[in-house]
């Protein structure tokens, strides 16, 4: 949103190319909002440690084995809310979690003809744990919506659903927008009903101004010959 706002500021200052059409009323409304929250994240949620030592071998040679190791646990837990953007009603909530065991191993081997050391450590960054928990969290949100789709729709509300359906119609224009016919021969009628007297027949390049009134699938427009009605599905933005 910050980048979008910056682009619009450039447009208002006149820095963008003419005709770029970066203006008001073009952002698509969100249907739902997801709010994540990190409940807790612990890079050391407990662990175990131990050591082993002994004599291994025979009379010809002896090997002293010494092993020390530890296991440390990382854990993260998150929560997530899904809210209808228009009604503000919470439609789903879920939690997520992730856990990782980090292994630390150190050892020393001593012998008459061999000597060395072995060490290994696998580490996962704390941010990765939180990301894994959020993925689990989102999957739980999806399951909640799939298991109760009717509940989600009921909470969203009929008015909100109708608003959402209207907001995503392809080529939908707002009052004051210039529209053109999708095909040649589109009729501008004097009344918003089939069989009404014709005011004008539009060509493919003829422009009309959308006034905003809508009845029976027709929208009111201003054409070259005056105000009239055109079937909404026959108009598009140029």
Please provide a brief summary of the model.
By secondary structure, the chain is α+β, with helices and mostly antiparallel strands. Helix content is 21%, strand content 45%. A hairpin with a 2-residue loop joins strand 9 and strand 10 (218-223).
Give short descriptive properties of this protein:
238 residues, alpha+beta, SH3 type barrels, 2 domains, five-stranded antiparallel beta sheet, 21% helix, elongated
Description of the structure:
- This protein is α+β, with helices and mostly antiparallel strands and 238 residues long.
- It folds into two domains: 25-166, no CATH class; 170-236, SH3 type barrels.
- It contains four helices and twelve strands.
- It has helices spanning 2-12, 126-147, 149-156, 158-167; strands at residues 32-42, 47-57, 62-84, 90-110, 115-121, 178-181, 186-189, 198-202, 208-215, 218-223, 226-231, 235-236.
- Strands 1, 2, 3, 4 and 5 form a five-stranded antiparallel sheet that branches. Strands 11-10-9-6-12 form a five-stranded antiparallel sheet, with no helix packed on it. Strands 7-8 form a two-stranded antiparallel ribbon.
- A hairpin with an 8-residue loop joins strand 7 and strand 8.
- The protein is elongated.
- The protein starts with a helix and ends with a strand.
